[in-house]
Amino acid sequence: MTTEKTPRVPGAGPRAMAWQRRRASAARFWRQYRTHRAGLFGLGVLTLFVLLALTAPLLVGSDVADVTDAPGAPLEDPSAELPFGADRFGRDLFGLVIWGARVSLLVGLLAAVLSVLIGTVIGVTSGHFGGWFATVIMRITDWFLVMPTLVLAIALATVMSRSLLTIVVAIGVTTWPTTARLVRAQTLAVETRPYIERARALGGGHWHVMSRHVLPNVMPLVLAQTTLIISSAILAEATLAFLGLGDPTVVSWGGLLQDAREAGAISAGHWWYLVPPGIAIAVVALAFTLCGRAVESVLNPRLGVSR
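Above: the chain sequence. Below: its structure as tokens.
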């Protein structure tokens, strides 16, 4: 990625200059990002789904999940009034899919943030302190890496109460090892740079070095890792909900698939019960992956990600 000098505004203070550099950096990032056609496609798809999720109460109404006033018959075929047909309770599947985007996107985002937060803290601290502390932490990380993530998430979701918070925690605390490994490797590379030695010679403590010098240099990697983990978190949420471990009182894409399984839609050939939520999960996961690969390519051009 080409580097450009930020023009200095005469008389600008340090805070104004810092914001000017951030704006210039964001502008450079966007110029590079928009050259990736796949990344732009993924961003457009995500924008569409986010808008649908935010405007769901206006588009389909907040009573779309109400079974007492369902607009159709149980398992009714798709029609002009019900584009995606009806579920086993006669509810409009089109409205349920749109409403389910709110829960699936929210859970995926929160679980990814929790996972990346845990991985970043562990990666930075183990890479900075080293010694026996890093050895113990990395052995725990290795244990989580070799254990099947889904099995651990199912175990946590089973012993905890069935709620969205349980799903977020179950996904977040089982998917952080990859981020921890990546961040630790980047931290070790940053710690060898001369300005770290100068900061320590000038009296900078551990917190100063980690927060002011190490963390800003690993944040691009953390950002790219977050966009990639969100897709995995959405798939994990759908899997847990499909297995009946989600919150039964909320509507999500995985919950719709679980309802379809319980209603026997697969054996009865009611394809409209399965296809819309399944396609929504696949499309959103693909969109986040495309965005993540584009972000990786912009922040680290040596990766050579195709456009």
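The mean pLDDT is 83.
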